[in-house]
Write a structure and sequence with these properties.
This protein is α+β, with helices and mostly antiparallel strands. Helices cover 61% and strands 12% of the residues.
């Protein structure tokens, strides 16, 4: 400076050249450090992230050029905090308020749950943006900058997964309401499914946050895979039952309160659990069937008849004449068709077989109502009507009989022996 004061002719040019020289020296120093880093095997200079680029643009806008923290840095940091706080209030109050009003006008209830669930994660995301932007403005030491970068990565990753978990929870709650409204068997499994998926998302979020900060997640996953394999081998029956419960929940072959036949077991479904399904038998005993058996066996749902088909064989005695047999067949057909609860197209009545002890009339009809009690009352009315028709024509129902006829030689032998008066031989 003394030299520049003595030589006034050189003062302006030197003053202009000084910043250029400083910039050139800084550029040379940066190039030298980068080259030294390459030679020494160190990592390349880190590319600034999006938030850092925004902060650099703000500092350049206000022409803040200082290696330390000045009042301008603190003022810009405080202003960023206030701006993002105001933005957070606008988003949560106005934007989500509008979305909630819009959701109230839609037919579905899913958006009524989704928008309130996302309000917290979105507000937290905006607050984190403001906080880290303000901290980026301040000149922190190298160790503090590294800690800030790690904290920012972890915070944004966890905030993102928090939003996903809230959205997933709202979706599963909506599915639970739909299943409950439809009286679905999946209703009992919805809390378990919800908890399992949330735990899975939490673990995934933690692993991704750890991977983003440089933790070796592959080794942990490898160890977890070996441990999971050992656990699966030790608890394969339990896992099979859990998968069986999932199959029952998805396929919905029966509901609580329905009568079913599973393999050799028949009863009313009393409970559908994660490990087993409980049936109450007719004799009131409790049958507990593992869910892996339920998933593997054929299930007959006795409560989901659309119609009830009746097939009967009525035998008349062999002394029935052909005319009477033809007439009674017509009588049976007429009295069945007279019932309004019977499908007219399903009625079939025919003289079918000459059996060992009877002349068999085969009849089939279908009851329109699948209700068991109504079906049994209809069947009773028809059976009584057929009995009256048989009695009115003087015919008889057949029952198992056997006639033994002896030949001539057998009759002589018996007569030669004689038969005692008391009937004993």
């Amino acid at each position: 400076m003394v030299f520049l004061g003595v030589l006034p002719g050189w003062s302006q040019s030197a003053a202009v050249a000084a910043p250029e020289a400083a910039n050139s020296a800084a550029a040379t120093n940066t190039t030298t450090q980068a080259a030294a880093a390459v030679v020494s095997g160190a990592a390349q200079p880190r590319v600034p992230d999006f938030l850092e680029q925004i902060v650099d643009a703000i500092l350049a806008l206000f022409e803040v050029r200082s290696d330390g923290n000045t009042w301008q840095h603190f003022a810009i940091a405080g202003t960023l905090l206030l701006v993002f706080y105001a933005l957070r209030r606008v988003v949560t109050t106005w934007l989500f308020g509008f979305l909630k009003i819009f959701a109230a006008r839609t037919k579905t209830t899913f958006d009524d749950k989704l928008f309130p669930a996302l309000e917290g994660p979105v507000a937290a995301f905006i607050a984190l943006l403001g906080l880290f932007a303000a901290l980026k403005v301040l000149k922190l030491p190298l160790s503090g900058d590294n800690v800030l970068r790690v904290a920012m990565t972890v915070a944004f990753t966890l905030c993102f997964f928090w939003g996903l978990i809230r959205a997933l929870s709202a979706f599963l709650d909506h599915l639970g309401e739909l299943a409950k409204a439809r009286n679905s068997s999946a209703t009992a499994f919805m809390p378990w499914i919800k908890k399992s998926l949330i735990v899975l998302f939490v673990i995934l979020g933690i692993l991704m946050a750890a991977a983003n900060i440089g933790v070796d997640v592959k080794a942990f996953l490898a160890g977890l895979g070996i441990g999971g394999l050992a656990f699966a081998l030790a608890a394969q029956d339990t896992i099979a039952n859990l998968f069986g419960s999932v199959v029952v929940a998805v396929d919905q072959p029966f509901k609580i309160g329905e009568a079913v036949r599973i393999g050799a077991f028949t009863g009313t479904v009393e409970d559908i659990g994660l490990r087993s399904t409980k049936l109450r038998a007719v004799d009131r005993s409790l049958i507990i069937i593992p869910n892996k058996t339920v998933a593997a066996e054929a299930v007959t749902n006795l409560a989901r008849f659309t119609e009830r088909r009746v097939e009967q064989v009525i035998g008349l005695t062999y002394d029935t004449t052909a005319e009477n047999l033809d007439a009674i067949v017509d009588d049976f057909r007429t009295l069945i068709l007279a019932e309004s609860e019977v499908e007219a197209d399903s009625v079939q009545v025919y003289f079918r077989d000459y059996s060992a002890s009877s002349l068999d009339i085969w009849l089939v009809y279908v009851a329109k109502d699948a209700d068991f009690k109504k079906h049994m009352r209809l069947r009773q009315r028809i059976n009584l009507a057929m009995m009256r028709a048989v009695q009115a024509r003087g015919l008889s129902f057949a029952f198992p009989t056997q006639t033994v006829e002896f030949g001539t030689s057998a009759a002589r032998v018996l007569s030669a022996r004689g038969t005692p008066a008391d009937g004993r031989s």
